[in-house]
Design goal:
Shape: globular
Number of helices: 9
Distance between the termini: 15 Å
Oligomer: single chain
Number of domains: 2
Structural class: alpha/beta
Radius of gyration: 19 Å
Largest sheet: 7 strands, mixed
CATH topology of the largest domain: TIM Barrel
């Protein structure tokens, strides 16, 4: 299956996060109720030949230690989603853990560590590689063992499809094949979904909803809240490039940046490139003069404030074919950041 090179952000962004992590290291966790949660995304564990999709085992161990250190509430992802959907409060520092694809190191490396720590896990499985016995992937027996241990299984298409490039018929066939294989091997069809590569569009999201999935995740950074789009939920991706203890701590303590009237509404960019990106920050958020945005393709961008709460992100050049991720962050105090992310896809790679 095709993989793209890791998408990085300017060094100033990483430096800012590292500095914030130092400040956050002494922050005492609160037990207050909240209406948001951070969800992390992994793929492989200890497979250093794939640094863009793998986390080093020592870094993963350090992340588990951080989560065990006090104050975090690691919860099953379905419970997090149900609480937010129903308007019920979550504990502050609620965290969910997810893995995409179904690589064998989930069963051999990740789950034994998480099980020992008492942490729940959700795994989004692409079924074709399992059926075909691809090297490095789990078997159905291993997946059944995870289910018996209480691991949540989500759908990820059958073929790990580039959905934003695919026809409605191709998507329907791929999802139907995936669902049939889950039903045959596990006895159920998942209710949650993750877009392969994080690529989606309004049309794809509508088709995923019509296929019976209640929630769907992308691969853009951000914090889930009750105001989130439950068919395009953010996750913080972790790998050898973004897996340090400082980076993990800052993201685990992140808060949502409430955004409305976001443009363009469709993540699929087929015209008007560069897109006119804009959003309004919700009332009650202060310190907006410190808001900063970063793009993953390293093209120039500028953030312009219009009035009290409206912002435009102006790109210096059209987006290149492929994926583009936008991150906007705002220091909140006590070492915490508000965070909003969005992802776009330009056909023609």
């Amino acid at each position: 299956m095709r993989r793209r090179p890791p998408e990085t952000f300017p060094a100033i962004c990483i430096a800012a996060l590292a500095l914030a992590a130092v400040i956050a290291a002494g922050f005492a966790h609160a037990a207050a109720a909240a209406d948001s949660a951070v969800v992390f995304l992994y793929h492989r564990f200890g497979e250093s030949q794939y640094p863009a999709t793998s986390i080093r085992l020592d870094e993963f161990d350090a992340e588990i230690a951080e989560l065990k250190s006090g104050g975090y509430h690691v919860m099953p992802v379905p419970e997090i989603l149900a609480a937010l959907k129903d308007g019920r409060p979550l504990p502050d520092f609620a965290v969910g853990l997810t893995v995409d694809d179904g690589y064998e190191s989930v069963a051999t490396e990740a789950w034994p560590r998480l099980k020992a720590a008492g942490f729940p896990l959700t795994v989004f499985v692409a079924t074709d590689p399992i059926d075909r016995g691809f090297h490095g992937y789990m078997t159905w027996d291993q997946i059944r063992a995870l289910v018996r241990d209480g691991v949540t299984i989500g759908a990820h298409t059958a073929s790990h499809l580039h959905m934003a490039d695919a026809s409605a018929g191709k998507i329907a066939d791929d999802i139907a094949r995936s669902n049939a294989r889950f039903k045959a091997e596990l006895g159920f069809v998942p209710e949650i979904f993750a877009y392969p590569y994080g690529e989606t569009s309004l049309a794809v999201q509508a088709q995923v909803k019509d296929s019976g999935y209640r929630f769907a995740f992308g691969q853009h950074s951000g914090v889930i809240s009750r105001d989130s789009d439950f068919l395009d939920l953010p996750r913080f991706a972790l790998n050898e490039h973004y897996g340090s203890a400082d980076t993990f701590r800052v993201r685990a303590r992140a808060l949502p940046l409430p955004v409305r009237d976001f443009t363009p509404a469709d993540p699929l960019i087929t015209s008007d490139n560069p897109p006119a990106i804009g959003f309004t920050v919700g009332a009650g958020v202060t310190g907006l003069e410190k808001l900063a945005c970063y793009g993953s393709q390293r093209e120039g961008l500028a953030v312009k404030r219009l009035g009290a709460n409206r912002f435009e992100v102006r790109l210096a050049a059209p987006l290149a074919p492929g994926r583009f991720r936008l991150n906007c962050t705002l220091p909140e105090g006590e070492g915490r950041f508000r965070w909003f992310g969005a992802a776009f896809y330009v056909p023609g790679r």
